[in-house]
Amino acid sequence: MTRLSVNINKVATLRNARGGDVPNVVKVALDCENFGADGITVHPRPDERHIRKRDVFDLRPLLRTEFNIEGYPAPEFIDLVLKVKPHQVTLVPDSPTQLTSNSGWDTKTNLEFLTEVLEAFNTAGIRTSVFVSTDAEMIEYAAKAGADRVELYTEPYATAFPKGKEAAVAPFVEAAKIARSLGLGLNAGHDLSLENLNYFYKNIPWLDEVSIGHALISDALYLGLERTIQEYKNCLR
Ligand SMILES: CC(=O)[C@@H](O)[C@H](O)COP(=O)(O)O
Ligand SMILES: NCC(=O)COP(=O)(O)O
Question: Where is this site: Transition state stabilizer (predicted)?
Answer without folding.
Answer: 151
